[in-house]
Structure formats: C-alpha cells, structure tokens
Amino acid sequence: MRNHEHVKIKYMRRSILLVFIIQFCVTLLFCQSSVSSESEAIFDQGMLLYNQENYEEAITKFGAAAELDGKRAETYFRIGLFYKRLKRVNESIRYFSKAIRLDSSYREAYGYRAYANTDAENYRCALADFNEVIKLDTVNICLYFTRGIVKSNLKNYRGAVEDYNYLLERKSELSTKEITAVYFNKAEVEYYWGKTDQAYRDFKAVVQRDPSNTEAFLYLGYIRIDQGFYEEAIAYLDACLEIDESNHEALYLRGWCKFYLDVEDWGEADLQRSVSLGNRDARAFLKENF
Fold first, then answer.
1. pLDDT at 22 over 50
2. What is the mean pLDDT of residues 47-54?
3. Of 99, 130, 145, the domain-final residue
4. Nearest residue to 24 (alpha-carbon basis) of 99, 111, 110
5. Are the C-beta atoms of 218 and 238 separated by less than 8 Å?
6. Is 165 within a domain?
7. Same domain? 136 vs 252
8. What H or E segment, with its residue span, contains residue 223?
9. Interacting residues of 58 by C-beta distance below 8 A, sequence separation 6+
10. Residue 166 reports pLDDT greater than 80
11. Residues of the domain holding 100
C-alpha cells in the first residue's frame, strides 16, 4: 500500500531534537571574560535591556559593543546568540559567520550556526557546519543526531543511517529517551529509503522502549500493510488506537485492512470515524467503495 505520500517525514520533532541541543549547549564554554571591559560593560547593558524586553535598544547596545571590539570573535558570537533567542535565524547566522571569519576554529560558533541553518532549512550549509564542528569537538556525540536529520533531509539516507548507527554503538553514553529517539529516526529514514525490514526491526525497538509511541505503531502498521500482512497490521493499529482513539490515520488504515480482509463491517465504522476526524483519504475510499 504505497498510496500514503501524505504522511510526511517528521525529522524535525522539536521535543526529540531539543534533548540533543541541550546536551550540546551545556558543554559549551562560551561567554568567557576575553572581551574588553568597556565593550563588556556595554554588552551587559544590552543584556539588561534584552531581559527587560527592550529589544531595539538592546540591539543598539550590542552594535556599539561590536564597534568597540570588532576584532573579537566572541562579541559577534554573543550577538548571534541574542538573535537566536529572538528566533531571528538569518541574523543569528550572519553574526555566527562573522565570528567564524575571525576565528576559523570557533567550535561553538560552528555548532550554533549548524543548528540555525537547520532551523532555516539551509541543509547543505548545516551539513558543512556539522562536519566542521564534529572535527573540532569529538566529545559531543549528540551532534551526530542532528547531522543525521540534516542528511536525511538531503536524501542522503545512507549517511543518516551511518550517523544513527554510530550513536547506537555508543548508546551506553545516552539516556533511554535519547536511544529511543535515535532508533525512531533511524527507522523512519530506513522506511523512506525502502529498507522496510530494517525499519520494521527498529520501530519494534522503539515500542519496546516506549510502548506509548503512537507514531511507531502507526509505521509498523504501514509496513505490514506494504508487505501484505493485514492481520498483523491491524494488531499494530489496535495498539496505536488504544493509546490515541482519535488517531484518524490509524482508523483509516484499520478500516482499509478490514475492508480487504472482508471482516466485521468491512471497516466502514473505522472509515466513517476517520472521515469525521477530517481524513480525506478515508472520505475518498468510502466514496469509491461504499
């Protein structure tokens, strides 16, 4: 059943990605006392204005600090951090880039620019930055997770799986939540790469670690439908609906399976419920077959 292109790859799950970004951030040694005292004082004034949500004046102060300390990479890096906090991604990238031009080994600037480029969907630039920061920082294995996301968005599925496998080789350094996230992203990449047997195995690893993961059960249902094992697919979709009874995608798929297995009400109740929840595929299927 390959007619489900409407299911989008969800590589940028914020809740998962945040776990790894936090790990990266807490190990950074940024904001050292290398900036001149006058520039530092002006920058501190800018931070005070920022905390008071007076952003325009804060920007003016940061600009003044940069003029006084224009050859210090850290000044531009800190301005980049400011813009990132304001979710002004393009400006943050510009200032991280200025920091890197002044210090080509500034790993923190490469790291933050990599994440900013990922947020901006500048995936080729993000990949170049992740490659560079991984050379400079051999400790933060969390960087491989987001690089895997970037590679998958560039359809470099083999490279993405290699990054996730590397993380799994070092899973003793990861939490259970992080390991589950790695297995999920790896399985998702494998599924869209056409490696359904590997994807099936890894989605199983996800639900073993997180029995409440509805998306993993949904994918397991898809895989078994693709392979023609409709009864097994129904079992996975049942598990998904036990967790989220309003999952319209699972209702549609379960109704679809029942229709082709010719059981119960031919899946009409599931399909009708899916339609009531806004599923267009279920609506089209009902129109065509009932």
1. no
2. 86
3. 145
4. 111
5. no
6. no
7. no
8. helix 214-226
9. 46, 47, 49, 50, 82
10. yes
11. 18-29+37-145
Residue 186 lies in a domain: no
Q: Is residue 226 part of a domain?
A: yes
| Contacts of range 112-117, beta carbons closer than 8 Å, 24 or more positions apart | 112/77, 112/80, 112/81, 112/84, 113/80, 114/143, 114/146, 115/21, 115/24, 115/146, 116/80, 116/84, 116/89, 116/92, 117/93
Residue 132, domain CATH:
1.25.40.10
Give 127 or 82, the one with higher predicted confidence: 127
| Distance (Å, whole) CA 129 – CA 68 | 28
pLDDT digits (tens, 9 = 90+) for 235-270: 999 999 999 999 999 999 999 999 999 887 789 999
Listed ranges 22-26, 28-32, 278-282; the one with the highest mean pLDDT: 278-282
- Among candidate residues 103, 110, 200, the one with its CA nearest the CA of residue 146: 110
* DSSP character at residue 24: H
Determine whether 137 is exposed, middle or buried from the number of CB atoms within 10 Å of its CB (0-12, 13-18, 19+). middle
Other beta carbons within 10 Å of 190? 23
Q: Is there a contact between 252 and 274 (Cβ–Cβ < 8 Å)?
A: yes
Number of structural domains found in the chain:
2
| pTM of structure | 0.83
Residue 85 maps to a domain: yes
- 130 and 25 assigned to the same domain: yes
Q: Is residue 279 a contact partner of residue 249, using CB atoms and an 8 Å limit?
A: yes
pLDDT in tens, 175-223: 999 999 999 999 999 999 999 999 999 999 999 999 999 999 999 999 9
For the range 64-67, what are the long-range contacts, defined as Cβ-Cβ under 8 Å and sequence gap of 24 or more?
65/35, 65/39, 65/40
